[in-house]
Amino acid sequence: MLINLAISNYRSIKDKVALSMLPAKAFKERPTNLFHANEKFELLRSACIYGANASGKSNFILGLITFGKYILESSDLKLEQEIPLYDPFLLDLKSSKLPSKFEIDFIASDNIRYEYIVEISQKKVEFESLYFYPKGQKSKVFVRINGKPIDFGTIIKGEKKSIEARMLDNQLFLSRAANEKIEALYPVYNYFRFTELFDIQNINVPFGSVSSDIIARLLKEKDESFLVKLRSLINALDTGIISFDIRKTDGIPFLKGLPEEAMKMYNEEIFSMLSKELSFEISTYHNAFDENGNALKPIAFSIERESSGTKSLFALATFILDSLEKGSLFVIDEFEKNLHPSIVRFLVGLYNNPQMNTMNAQILFTTHDTSLLSNEIFRRDQVWFTDKNSQGVTELYSMADISGIRNNIPYDKWYLSGRFGATPVINEPNISYGKDVQGKK
């Protein structure tokens, strides 16, 4: 369960920006949008980020997604390999040479609060620290400063010094130690492993054979009760799909039809791996009728034949339902892409509804959909904005940070009128089409 996230010196983010899922204590609106994470914390179920194009809202989300991927994959980095996460602010000479910093505060599956901080340069982890609150008091797990021995607390047992000695400069101790069976770090590592911290745009925009296969493989791992719920959800959202199924295919769907020269790029080992991981297919079923309107046997479609909106919805519904069942954080950029506003509103409502969200999952997303900007959906402390200053630096702030904003104001109209900032400043372009605008010949 996410408590706080802060990012510094990453892409358009120069100075530290932070987003909190802690509710404003003074606000009493929409109490069902909150949940008790443990005896210490009450948290928000959802948060959304608005802002002009290129204001940095996607960079903030990408920072979290890429940070999570780095945690899961850093133990695979080779000697002197660049750290993929490192992407500093380039419009300032000093910042372009400084480390990027990521700070996350969360409650893991053991119901304990953790604070994890990482600073990285191009090829080195400059700083890494992990603290936890086992009895409400902050306690050190480890602190790592580049060039110095790791300072361990008392919780980590086992071959910690051996792991430290073998660890490369570009690898995280958290990743190496968790993958080498240091059980004390499992709750922290698994927080990122089981949280939906990935770029959903890789799923719902191209949605080609590879993407649909990833979803099919995820569904193949689920039990029948999950599939029943997903069929019910897809059917309820007016897609025309009454059911679907998943089957193993012969060969690898996305490689079919490739020229022979391209096929030679894949050796037997790669073919074997792809055949195991990418050889499922999703079929959707639609009602069919005769000329008199009488129902016939449903017709099966490959999911590739569905509309882009339906494919996006199918992907989103799968991952959202998975998130709700696991009680995990779901992160997505441009939530509304290819979807009707009513469907987006419904899906957000699944998280804000305590009867549907019984495992206390959270969603964090960016959007331009102003139909969601309503006090009937969000509290003021759930709505965030990004803006860029004159130096191209991203700023992040909440509606709750703006003085004088009451709960009963029309969020959408105030946002579009520019009262919250975070909207584009559009200047009339000096462009003429065809003949000169003055009528000169």
Account of the 3D structure:
The chain is of the alpha+beta class. Helices cover 27% and strands 23% of the residues. It has two domains: 294 residues, 3-Layer(aba) Sandwich (Rossmann fold), CATH 3.40.50; 125 residues, no CATH class. The strands form four sheets. A seven-stranded antiparallel beta sheet has the order 2-1-6-7-8-9-10, with helices on one face. A five-stranded mixed beta sheet has the order 14-15-5-16-17, with helices on both faces. The protein is globular and about 80 Å long.
Using brief descriptors, characterize the structure shown.
five-stranded mixed β-sheet; seven-stranded antiparallel β-sheet; 2 domains; 27% helix; 441 residues; globular; Rossmann fold; alpha+beta; 17 strands
Characterize this entry briefly.
With 441 residues, the protein is an alpha+beta fold. It has twelve helices and 17 strands.
What's the layout of helices and strands?
Layout: E1 2-8, E2 17-20, E3 34-36, E4 42-44, E5 46-51, H1 57-73, E6 100-107, E7 113-120, E8 125-133, E9 139-145, E10 151-152, H2 160-166, H3 173-179, H4 186-194, H5 201-204, H6 209-220, H7 224-236, E11 241-248, H8 260-263, H9 268-277, E12 280-289, E13 295-302, H10 308-326, E14 329-332, H11 341-352, E15 362-366, E16 383-388, E17 394-398, H12 411-416
Parallel strand pairs: 5-15, 5-16, 14-15
Antiparallel strand pairs: 1-2, 1-6, 3-4, 6-7, 7-8, 8-9, 9-10, 11-12, 12-13, 16-17
Helix pairs in contact: 7-10
